[in-house]
Design a protein that fits this description.
8 strands; alpha/beta; three-stranded antiparallel β-sheet; 6 helices; five-stranded parallel β-sheet; 223 residues
Length: 223
């Protein structure tokens, strides 16, 4: 069975998600009597085109939180964990072990992912605005959530910034993942939760790889 597309592209999905997030922020403000201070954090690169229309609609800053999956050396597509550029790591509890030199290959995989995250952050952070996350509602955005490892690792790093709350937001994620995700974010906002869930890309008509230059363009336009 092939998943039917739910969104045309990342930008359209972001526009739809933006209205949902704004509605929830409005409801929260009405209930508490306190106006939230939102800051949108994109998970680059794919999360940037989704996050840009959200920051635009909310009229708030757009910045980045870089996290990379940690791949199994024998299968690059298999995530055994995720790590942020600042070194916050989350391992998959079901990560497969290698019979020989287990700790050595895990460390090598971790170090490589940290290198990738730092490298990407260095290319993008210069065009991002200075933000004050303390006491703010941090809205972490990706183009979709499959395993949840990357967005969860990013959330652990963001919680150390002393925000009021960290929201995990994406156009699509598997319904079965939501209970696990809830431990990492103060609020989870997902537009569609289809099952079965094969891949994020299958829910988009257009899902090209987002090049670094394209991510820079989106960030510059919003800054």
């Amino acid at each position: 069975m092939v998943n039917a597309p739910l969104f045309f592209n990342r930008t359209r999905a972001g526009e739809e998600l933006a209205h949902k997030i704004r509605d929830v922020l409005t409801q929260e403000a009405a209930a508490s009597g306190v106006e939230p201070i939102p800051i949108v954090y994109a998970l680059p690169r794919g999360g940037v085109p989704v996050a840009a229309p959200i920051a635009r609609l909310l009229g708030c800053p757009l910045t980045i939180m870089v996290a990379k999956k940690i791949s199994h050396p024998d299968d690059p597509e298999l995530a055994i964990g995720a790590v942020t550029s600042s070194g916050h790591v989350l391992w998959n509890e079901q990560k497969p072990s290698s019979p020989q030199h287990s700790s050595q290959w895990q460390k090598a995989a971790l170090d490589y992912s940290i290198y990738q995250a730092k490298s990407l952050e260095a290319k993008l952070i210069s065009v991002c605005p200075q933000v004050k996350p303390e006491g703010a509602t941090l809205i972490l955005v990706d183009d979709g959530i499959a395993t949840g490892l990357t967005i969860a690792a990013a959330a652990t790093a963001m919680k150390e910034l002393e925000p009021k709350a960290v929201w995990l937001c994406a156009p699509v994620a598997p319904r079965s993942l939501l209970p696990w995700l809830s431990q990492w974010g103060d609020r989870i906002i997902i537009l569609e939760t289809p099952e079965p869930f094969w891949s994020v890309s299958s829910f988009y008509v257009e899902f090209p790889q987002v090049e670094t230059s394209k991510a820079l363009m989106y960030l510059q336009q919003q800054s």
